[in-house]
Write a structure and sequence with these properties.
homodimer; alpha+beta; Arc Repressor Mutant, subunit A; Beta-Lactamase; Enolase-like, domain 1; 3 domains; 12 helices; 10 strands; elongated; DNA-binding
DNA sequence: TGTTAGCACTCTATTGGTTCGAGTGCTAAG
DNA sequence: CTTAGCACTCGAACCAATAGAGTGCTAACA
């Protein structure tokens, strides 16, 4: 195990490397405030830390950099929280100062601010819209063969799809259908919508509407494609600011992974509570083996949850980001719950 | 002016450079089919073309690369169209084969395919939504103090905003308001909506609804923010594939410009009809001085227009892209008009 | 026994010199 | 007007030498 002095040296080494991105040597460390030993002693300790796998050398006579194990130990045991600066708080709070009412918009803007503040990339995951409850359904005819279906949920989220209807459909039939749908489906979650649609309304529709078949089929199909995702990125380009990423090939792989929100399950530990840190190869994706991801969950009301993540180089400023995410998580939980609680 | 042989040499030089990204020398050119002169003659002609500003050297003893003027001459006078390959057509047509009915979705997917096909970045601009016509308005109460306003347009586009309402609002008053709004505003364009809202409905609302003031104010405000933009990008990351862009700083500037759809007016010649090519510094933005942008407009019905653009390096494959955009433009015009004409 | 000064050693990064090759411009002959 | 020939230029690649930062080890010291 590690002595007090070794812990100190490990911590200072990681801190310094996080700050400078340069391998750190014994002389440099000896000069740091808080360290009293001479460079020779430090050299011995560094050798020991390297022997135990916490540090690495880039080449035989270079300074040390933290290994994966070193970072892991650092975040698990050596991380001292530091308060979020007032300035950051002001900027984060600005999201709530403008009168923005949509959950989605708030989350989106938070992502932007978070990435600006950190110079890393942020990923915010909104609450699972499938748990939202149908508040109202409507169908608006557009042209003889087309109509748009609209679903409003209790959160104020609006889903809409254009679908085709029989050309000579009687408008009153559409109205009847909307009435039946609303009668039966208000209060149902989006998750259950499709099933309930079939179970509860099909028979009724058959009973009251001529030529319900074609209409019902395209309508059902329209609702099937769950298109909109609720992932918001901030500062995807910040990757380009990090000196750690100089290989254009690597950058491309990384941005590719983040491009379409397709790999979210692999990037974020969904469902995990509280704060999670994944360092380097702890990430599921090969493209992210040089990255660290810090994730924290937040809650809206008692049921719904979302995630906030920061993606940066392994050499990211863990201390700052952890504090920041802690703050944002509780702030977002509080404000979104407040916005939501009136339901 | 230029002789026949000079024109030939200029064309072959540009073609070769577009293909190889390497400065092209006299020996190389002499070997090309279609060129009969010796390398010495070609050297003389190259010197002449350089003298007239069509070609440049990267250093004293290098081969030639096209100058801005050279590219300009090339696209204006030397571009011979080549038919769009069957394979590309198949891929482009696939957008219309799936039953996607939303204009926006079609445009979005076209952007994706176009970028895949070209390995450049595509920007598609949808028709100006402000010209769309209101088909239906509705207000759905969410919670005591909140409601969501929904506007459906004739194109099937749905705009929605959450806004606050007086907490003890009478539900029947909201219904009245919706009736008045629909009565007066259906058929109005989104562009005129705000003005007409005030002119035509305010007096009526005052007459029929208690405490219309607060409701009307927040409703109006909600409709004011014209949030959603109708710009779709495809393959933003393709920039990273181009060997011309190796400087990470440049890449960042470029991606920055394209990030938020903020600089669209500067990137695209909006309103221009037909095909436009902007080469290098002909672009308005400094970040794009190493890029070329090829733009083509398309029409939906007789009134609405949009733009399709491809952004690539100056050394882009003008011939291929021009043909491709010509095709896509007419195809998109045709299909979207068809989708739309039933109105 | 733990700490430290001193020193030889290692490895990188930088610099300058050399060579190789592709390409040019010019001249003179065809 | 065209072309062969040749001297010249410049970048890229390679190599050696050097400086500098850092290490590991040994021996002296508290």
């Amino acid at each position: 195990m590690l002595t007090e002095r070794q812990l100190l040296i490990l911590k200072v080494t990681v801190d310094d490397y996080i700050q400078s991105a340069q391998p750190v040597g014994s002389n440099q460390l000896a000069k740091k405030p808080g360290i009293t030993s001479s460079s020779a002693t430090i050299r011995n300790e560094l050798a020991e830390l390297e022997g135990q796998g916490y540090l690495e050398k880039t080449h035989t006579s270079s300074g040390r950099i933290p290994s994966q194990k070193g970072y892991r130990y650092y975040v698990d045991h050596l991380l001292t929280p530091n308060p979020v600066p007032h300035q950051d708080i002001v900027q984060l709070r600005s999201v709530f100062e403008e009168k923005v009412n949509e959950t989605e918009e708030i989350i989106k803007r938070s992502a932007g601010i978070l990435s600006e503040l950190t110079n890393y990339t942020s990923i915010l995951l909104g609450p699972d819209i499938r748990r939202h409850i149908v508040k109202k359904l409507s169908i608006v005819p557009l042209s003889p063969g087309m109509a748009v279906a609209i679903i409003v949920t209790d959160s104020g989220h609006v889903e809409n799809r254009v679908f085709s209807i029989p050309v000579d459909m009687d408008p009153s039939d559409i109205e009847k259908m909307v009435n039946i749908l609303n009668d039966r489906l208000i209060g149902v979650s989006l998750h259950d919508l499709h099933r309930r649609l079939e179970q509860e309304t099909l028979a009724l529709l058959r009973q009251h509407i001529e030529r319900y078949g074609e209409l019902f089929r395209t309508f059902k199909q329209a609702l099937l494609l769950p298109r909109s995702d609720n992932v918001y990125y901030g500062g995807k380009l910040n990757i380009l600011k990090q000196p750690d990423f100089h290989d254009i090939q690597k950058i491309r792989e990384l941005m590719d992974v983040m491009e379409e929100g397709k790999h979210i399950p692999e990037i974020l530990p969904i469902g995990a509570q509280g704060l999670q840190i994944r360092i380097g190869s702890e990430n599921a994706l090969a493209a992210m083996e040089d990255c660290s991801v810090i994730t924290v969950s937040y809650e809206i009301g008692d049921e719904q949850t979302g995630s906030i993540a920061i993606v940066g180089p392994k050499r990211m400023d863990y201390r700052r980001i952890v504090s920041l995410l802690d703050y944002v998580s509780s702030d977002l939980s509080k404000e979104l719950t407040r916005l939501f609680q009136g339901k």
